[in-house]
Specification:
This protein is mainly alpha-helical. Helices cover about 75% and strands about 0% of the residues.
């Protein structure tokens, strides 16, 4: 039973997604931050347990980054719909993930499992920091708008620059993944041929 804990924690992150989305829609960015932090902690914990006790599985290698991306895209989608971030940021991320999923599906058919790398985790962490910054700015500014008597200036959208950094890391990770695919021979012409029946 203990060996399944990493995967259980990963699956738990999927159940946290609608809760996070709900609180963002409600404008309760504090609780959205709390549940997003819980999601992030389960991500760190499942990885630690899997490596510490050698509970790494092919299922875990596939589902862990999927949980990361499902959480990330869901949150970015809601923030884009609320005009907290530009829509084009979401589009770039979705296109990148579509390319990654297409590549992973192709390699999975060749009995090759794509596991996460440090550069993939880096882009996830940067997006997390950017999202948390958006939560903080939105919560702070909405409080000021609802209480004009505070007579304080609203915060500038400095989170946008963090999204730019996260996007750079995302594009870099995409390049590095496909570079790894190529160096291992999976993108060479002979391996791209479709066998005729």
């Amino acid at each position: 039973m203990f060996k399944h804990i990493p995967n259980i924690l990963t699956i738990l992150r999927f159940f946290l997604i609608p809760i996070i989305v709900y609180y963002i829609v409600q404008g309760n960015y504090i609780l959205a931050f709390v549940y997003l932090t819980i999601s992030g902690l389960t991500d760190v914990l499942d990885g630690y347990i899997a490596r510490k006790f050698n509970f790494i599985t092919n299922f875990g290698k596939l589902i862990d980054p999927l949980a990361d991306k499902a959480t990330q895209i869901s949150v970015l989608a809601v923030l884009a719909l609320q005009n907290v971030i530009p829509l084009w940021i979401l589009i770039v991320v979705v296109l990148k993930e579509f390319a990654m999923i297409s590549g992973a599906s192709f390699l999975y058919g060749k009995e090759f499992v794509v596991s996460s790398r440090w550069y993939g985790k880096l882009s996830t962490v940067l997006f997390y920091v950017a999202i948390v910054s958006s939560f903080f700015i939105s919560q702070f500014n909405s409080t000021l708008i609802n209480h004009p008597e505070y007579s304080m200036p609203t915060l500038p959208a400095f989170d946008q620059y963090l999204y730019y950094l996260a996007l750079i890391a995302t594009i870099f990770s995409l390049i590095m993944y496909f570079r790894a695919f190529y160096t291992q021979g999976y993108l060479k012409k002979e391996n791209l041929k479709i066998e005729k029946k």
